[in-house]
Amino acid sequence: MSVETAAPRGEQVARRRRFFTRQDKITLGFFIGIPTFLHVALVWFPAIATIGLSFTYWTGIKIEDITWAGLANYENIFFNTPIFWDAVRNNTIWILWFFFIATPLGVLLAYQIDREIRGHKLYQSAYFLPVVLSLAVTGIIWNFLLRPDGFVNGLLGLPISEAISFFGDERYNIWVIMIMASWRHIGYIMLLYLAGLKAVDGALREAATIDGATEWQTFRKVVFPAMKPVNIIVIVITIIESLRAFDMVYIIYGSSGGLPILGVLVFNNIAGEGASMKGAAYAVILFLLSIVPIITYLQQQFKDDVR
Amino acid sequence: MTTTVKVPELPKRTKKLYAQDIKDRFISIFIGIFAVVWVFPIVWTLWSSLRPYSEIRAGGVFSPPQELGVFNYASAIDRMELPTYFTNTVLITLPAVFLILLLGSLIAFVVTRYSFKFNVAMLLLFTAGNLLPPQLVFIPVFKLYLLLGDLVGDRRFLYDNHWGVILIHVAFQMGFATFVLSSYMKTIPKEISESAMVDGASVFTHYFRVMLPLLRPPLASLGVLMITWIYNDFFWALVLMSTDNKRPITSALGRLTGEFVTDYNLLAAGAMIAALPTLIVFFVLRKQFVGGLTLGSTKG
Is B281 in contact with A132 (Cβ distance < 8 A)? Predict the structure, then answer.
């Protein structure tokens, strides 16, 4: 951050001091103050308050009514709420599916498109399309294919009375949701990865090919290691997205818990009639689960600044 | 990929390249088939939205269409009160995006152009804040809004009000904007700022006259990305609003799905209309959208 000038040190300090007139100081104060106040007041303060509230009983009407609960809310969740474990199971499936299937597919897709295979521009557009849609719209669109008198049941030739209930039947529902979520996630990862691949030196790849490396070897030994920063970001995004999932499941199931996931459980316990500090405890659990990816992300992005 | 010089010297290699060519053809076809599968759900919804639901109930999903038209769209706009929801969306999205870009660029400007002790800490605060789960923040924000409402004597001062939703979006997304803009600003030569300061420009002039014009490209990308994100937000408008017809279109879809469950094709039309602005982003502003998305993830 030091200014490289030939001027003697004393003079430089004097000059720098002159820059900050009283008016400048006030301007700077406002420039930093207003955004920081807003951010702290509406993000950090509430986040810390929620952590505190998770150790209390409160119906949420008068502040005087708050009573200390210790770990009771957490005990309640861990030992007396079987649906919590169902949600944990579903979120785990979600993470594993994204991690081992959707994300690698997005990466491979990006790699092939980056190689400019025939039709790559068109393909890129096709896979990109779902990324701009909201998850709410995504839910409605897929409902069109999967409802009892929808396309898939029609294709299977099943009349409505014998139709498969893709969202209701526990044998299918989590996988159907995984496919829907991947529909958007694969395109998202593809876009992120493509941007990273564009930055990888083409000569590296050329050299590998000339040395007789196969396509797969080139990718695994040359491209993939060169993409380390992007790989980390992609993994972090994959985990955070899987933990936060809410919109699409909510639009299909509402609060019914037809497919319990953590995002919906938190929602059911913090919003509307059922609000209690058990919801705060749920939110804290969700936060603790995402703390590792958050820190990994920050480390990756700030490694140049903090040495 | 290959230069003409290399081809004649190694016949073995050409043979290998030929094999790769065939492999690529297969890969291309395979990815192509899936690309069709990928757009199919949208095409199918579009197709359904052009037919009356009664036809499908009578003849099944594959029945040949007797009637095709935009009647579902007209009826969706009318019966679902879509203009109201779209107005709400505009009233929330535009001020929110404007404030995010303004406040985010202010912080990024100060942090990258003036050296303080807490530069990195500030940046970290904003970036980390952006990554917190919204659910962790909700309860106190909700109480705070009600409390402030009671203080000014109007419970709907922030809760159940556009401004409440705008403020929470601004507070959250400002973190992302700060991060993206500060990494962009680091690439702008320091000399530009120095010469402005030597010329005696005030901090105010330095920001508005010198830096802001240089920030146009990332602001455009970020603006498009933010519009899409806030347009697509479902959670905040759902929990911070109780009056349904104050909600923006995306959050309103939840209720509309329940209400029009008996007429799927009308719902298809509604969903297509709700998707329209994001489809415009896809067709017209994709460069900015992708630019904004990747600016944040790969540091330019």
Answer: yes
